[in-house]
Design goal:
- The protein is α+β, with helices and mostly antiparallel strands and 389 residues long.
- The protein has two domains: 136 residues, no CATH class; 226 residues, no CATH class.
- The chain has 16 helices and eleven strands.
- A five-stranded antiparallel sheet has the order 9-2-1-11-10.
- Helix 5 packs across helix 6.
- The chain is globular.
């Protein structure tokens, strides 16, 4: 059963679009599915299906009423969690582990807590506080368990005597940690089992947060120098990477990853804070596309101020809603969404609402149509084969 295409793929109905002759749009039930999967990451509920049945979902007012109802529901949190889990690559948590000798506190429960910490931080900032999306990178507000506190070196009391209990936590003004880039879900997820990795962190920041593709390394690259943590000549990761970048084949890619990844060197492979490496003070200076900084907090502020960060989450959210990559034909809608996102003060719920009310979300690109020769035509409906969810 679970190998059946009917189980593995989303199949939505389509119908001719009366406003655009020769084009197709999702039928009311397909529209309900598209909307519910986007905002709730779940199938349509009874009310949404009823709106599809009585065709009220086909009117602007009916669609707006349903969008507002779905967004007012507590189920919106589940949809936001699903989106950011996808955007931030949280599927990699399934294989995350650390050297138990070097990091004995890093257990499977810490891995679970790390993922949950970031999702709670996101929901709190975007939904509860209705804050600016960019503040995710600089916010001092988060949530911790005693297990996470032991990794971070922070005093977190077990609420009600329960070690699994979550407690809100606000970092001090001068604390080096700020925002989701300083959390275990980023600095430990993008590091090696036994050591940190500015390259992996820089690559993840470019690709996941700024939507900038980093080329794959050329074949047969010699990583011996970078991996030799006991080399007396190169005591710090910065020293080893600087020497590694002298190879012309390595310099091109590393220059866009290392200058931002090195700003996170104060975070060890498990996410704990450190001030030195092999007895040498860590140099956390760096640069992001012309913006210079000298600390993890400085990097966080640079990402906050980088227009690529808001453009990235917008394109990812729109792609997530459509279930496909963006193409040239989406440029006009993307520009409209960007203008509205900026005007709202980069409020993420407003972006979701605008996407959900956009006609383009329910249009059927010709390339996606799989016509049923027995039912297609002016009086019939075609079958739209959707993307895997």
């Amino acid at each position: 059963m679970i190998e059946s295409p009917k189980f593995l793929f989303l199949k939505q109905g389509a119908e001719p679009d009366p406003d655009h002759p020769g084009q197709f749009r999702l039928d009311p039930y397909g529209k309900a599915i598209q909307l519910s999967l986007f905002l709730w990451n779940a199938p349509p509920d009874r009310q949404l299906l009823e709106a599809a049945r009585d065709k009220s979902l086909e009117t602007d007012r009916g669609l707006a009423n349903q969008v507002d109802r779905l967004m007012a529901s507590t189920r919106l949190e589940r949809g936001v969690r699903a989106f950011f889990s996808d955007m931030l690559g949280f599927d990699e948590f399934s294989t995350l582990s650390k050297d138990p000798v070097l990091y004995p506190k890093f257990t499977l429960k810490v891995v679970e807590d790390a993922r949950e910490q970031t999702l709670r931080t996101i929901v709190d900032n975007l939904l509860t506080r209705h804050g600016d999306y960019r503040d995710l990178f600089t916010t001092p507000h988060t949530f911790l368990t005693t297990r996470l506190g032991s990794i971070y070196g922070l005093p977190v009391a077990a609420r009600g005597g329960w070690p699994d209990a979550w407690a809100p936590y606000t970092y001090d003004k001068d604390d080096p940690r700020a925002g989701i880039l300083s959390q275990i879900s980023f600095v430990a997820l993008h590091a090696h089992p036994g050591r940190s990795s500015p390259t992996l962190r820089g690559k993840a920041l470019r690709e996941l947060v700024l939507c900038q593709k980093v080329p794959s390394p050329p074949p047969n690259v010699d990583f011996k120098l970078v991996q030799d943590v006991k080399n007396p000549q190169f005591k710090t990761t910065r020293d080893r990477l600087t020497a590694h970048r002298t190879a012309p084949t390595c310099a091109g890619c590393h220059k866009i990853m290392d200058p931002i990844g090195l700003a996170m060197e104060n975070f060890d492979a498990d996410g704990g804070f450190r001030a030195s490496e092999n007895g040498v003070a860590i140099d956390a200076t760096g640069e992001l596309d012309g913006m210079k900084f000298d600390s993890p907090a400085g990097l966080a502020k640079a990402v906050h101020d980088d227009p690529a960060a808001t453009a990235c989450v917008l394109s990812r959210a729109y792609e997530y809603a459509l279930g496909r990559p963006l193409g040239k034909g989406d440029a006009g809608t993307t520009k409209m969404l960007a203008d509205g996102f900026a005007a709202s003060g980069y409020k993420f719920p407003e972006l979701l609402r605008t996407i959900a009310l956009t006609d383009a979300l329910y249009a059927v690109p010709r390339m996606d149509l799989s016509l049923n020769t027995q039912g297609a035509g002016p009086a019939g409906t075609s079958a739209l084969t959707g993307e895997t969810r």
